[in-house]
Structure formats: C-alpha cells, structure tokens
Amino acid sequence: MKKLLWGIVALTIILTGCKKQEEKTVSGLLRSNFQTVINGDSVNLYVLKNASGAEVCLTNFGGRIVSVMMPDKNGKLQDVVLGFDSIEDYINVPSDFGASIGRYANRINKGRFVLDGDTIQLPTNNFGHCLHGGPKGWQYQAYQKVNQVDASTIEMTRFSPDGDQNFPGNVTAKVTFKLTDDNTIDINFEATTDKKTIINMCNHSYFNLSGNATKTVLDDSLYLNAAAFTPVDSTFMTTGAIDSVAGTPMDFTTLKPIGQDIHKYDFVQLKNGNGYDHNWVLNTKGDVTQLAAKVVSPVSGITLEVYTNEPGIQVYTGNFLDGTVTGKKGIVYNQRTAICLETQHYPDSPNKPQWPSTVLEPGQTYHSTCIYKFGVEK
Question: Is 190 tagged catalytic?
Fold first, then answer.
C-alpha cells in the first residue's frame, strides 16, 4: 500500500511539474491553446522577441498576429491588438483579427471580374460582394509551412490551388514578419502564380494603442498622408471616383481625434461607412520611406507609424464590433474599440482599369510591404 501511495505522490509531482513547464507568453498566452490540426494542416503559436523586450505572438492559422506587447510612456508593456486566447475562438468566431488577408483584400464588386475576356465569379459574403477573398479566404486557412528564421523573424507560406474560392492559378504566397530592435513590425508579402490572376494582400490587425480594449479609439489622434479617398456606396463598394478630403470629415492631413467628426452622418460617406471604413489614396507614391499614417494614444502615449509601398490604406474604426465577441482576457469588444490600417491596392481594382493594377502574371513576383513602427510620446 505504501508503495502505491508513494507511486501516486510521485506521479502527481511529475504531472504538476509538467504543467508548470509551460510558461505563458508575456501577453499571457499558452502555446498549447493554439496547437491543433485544421483541414490536415498543423497550427501553432509562435513568438517573436527583440532586444528591447517587445513581443509579438502569431499563429499560422490565417497568418495572424495574436498579440503585440509594446512599452507605454511609463515603460510598461501593453498589448495593443485585439484577438483571442485560443485557436478554437479563431476557428469558431468569424473575424479578421490580425490576419494576412488573401487572395484579395477588401471588396470585389458582386464578386465578379473579367480577366483576358473570361468572367470569373467569386463567392459573395458581404452585401453581395466578395470581401477579403470570400467566406473561405486565407484568414480561415492555415499557412502550411512555417520557418522561424531566428528569435525575431518568421516566414509563413501558403499554397493556394487553382480555383481556390474560384480565383485562377496555383499561387504560392509567403508572409515574413520581422520584429526589429526599434519596436517595428516589418511585414513583407510575396506571391507567385502559374496562371494570370489577381493578388492584393494586407495585414488586418485591430489596434487599440491604449492597451485597454474596453476603451474606444475615438480619443486617439490620426494622421493620413493622403489628399484624396475613394468614396463608397451604401454597400461599401467603391464608386470609381477619387475625391478630395479637403473641407470634409475625411481630412486627416493633420493629426486630429478619430472621434472628432466620425458621427457627422449628414456627410453621406460617414453614413455609408457607418463611420470610417474607406480607402485613402496615399501621397507617398510607393515610397516605403515616407510616412503613410500615424496614430497616437493620449492614454498610453504609444504611437504607431505606418509605412508601405502600396498606393492605398483602408482605415476601419471597428464600426461593426458590437459587444457580441469576447476576446483575450475575457474583454468584450464593443464598437470602435480598435482601428485597422490596411495597406493595399484600392478596393475593386480589377473592375476599375483606371486604378493601379492587381494583376499578377506567371514569372512575376508580387511584393507588398507594410511596416508598423511603434514609439512613445510622453
């Protein structure tokens, strides 16, 4: 009997030790909560760290950023993106939180476009349009190959077969995330195809720079290096026009609070967008060294600068967050508790030949860069 009791005690100690071995990330996540197999592909949680003590956690399910720990004005690390604590929520609760969107970020009118005389019909999932690659876009599929290059760099690769959501071509897409020592997340997208197709990728992180997702972002200040935007109709579809921001609530050419004009629904674009959910035409002309956008939190002092080689940036102020989704640490995500800054080509570009093309040909490589640089203003 004594031997049996000692055996039970020893087993309990071993099991307790095993439980203690799994440490949480700085943001409070457990890798075991992200380890599963989805449609035959293994998914996991990966961690990037830099010499400054910042941390970024990612999962290859949708190529998503799960958490971003950055120092505030007091030097305390804050998680500045929305997301979930486990892979089950990412699977069961439809969202774009932190995702590497593909094949086509944003909307395609009625899910239809013409390529070399052939009309291609995509599945529709948003007011009769195809949004973010359709109901089974890449945010809901695994990036099958993961290569953690070093402590601060990771590559995720996805093979998308010809006909994936009816898009043509066998496409291989790679997303590289690098966390630099100056607290910058450098995201690079690449893609190749064996058949003429369209590609428009972006990162869809929902930022709340206060570090407290119970607060809205309406008091945060926003700057956009853009003198024009692409207006939308009541179904959020671009009309084909490019309008000046001058004298309108769309003018962020100088820093101003996000909430200053957001409720001015007598301006039809804010009514159509239910707030800000628009593409701005950047003045940067593809120069990745020029500042494209900036957000400043008066609460934490954390700043976010955005740089890109893309011609546009979609700004979305969490208008459809409605309190029905519970995220990390049990926080309920209410309306306008985040801002998305999606660097990309303009929505519905395949149907608007006057705009920069999203066509990718065999032998070409698609390149897109999105840089999120964090800082502090005290």
Answer: no
